[in-house]
Recover the amino acids of this structure.
């Protein structure tokens, strides 16, 4: 297991380590039993993150899967990627507040420079919760400039020209 570096000034709600209200997810890279590289995060839903009583908010469960997918695209793809959106999202059960969970993401295919990432969450005891398939493409410097996004240096250094 290798912990992934996440700068303290990362402002992200999902993974910013110092975000005042965020999830503050931490990520590591692991090798799965089948030999594939995976990005992994552990989380425990809190009482103020509910939708229905005792259940983790559905949108936050999606966010956890989206975050682990982004980190997989960045780490396993080797460059800064932007999402082309979710391809498929399924929730078998909502995560319960106070129960430790794990989310894992891995590369599920490539095509013309685009990545497909498959993520899934489960309780640490192994009960499946949700899955997400998403598509990712390169974030190119010109698109970032046109959008007026002020990337911090640690992200700007990951951009690759088309």
């Amino acid at each position: 297991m290798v912990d992934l570096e996440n700068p303290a000034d990362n402002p992200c709600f999902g993974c910013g380590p110092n975000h005042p209200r965020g999830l503050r997810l931490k990520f590591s890279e692991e090798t799965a039993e089948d030999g594939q590289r995976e990005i992994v995060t552990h989380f425990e839903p809190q009482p103020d993150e509910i939708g229905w009583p005792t259940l983790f908010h559905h949108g936050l469960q999606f966010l956890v899967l989206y975050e682990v997918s982004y980190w997989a695209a960045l780490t396993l793809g080797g460059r800064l990627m932007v999402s082309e959106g979710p391809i498929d999202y399924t929730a078998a059960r909502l995560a319960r507040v106070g129960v430790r969970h794990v989310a894992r993401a891995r590369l599920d295919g490539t095509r013309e420079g685009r990545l497909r990432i498959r993520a899934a969450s489960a309780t640490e005891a192994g009960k499946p919760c949700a899955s997400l398939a998403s598509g990712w493409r390169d974030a190119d410097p010109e698109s970032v400039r046109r959008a007026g996004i002020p990337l911090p240096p640690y992200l700007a250094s990951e951009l690759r020209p088309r």
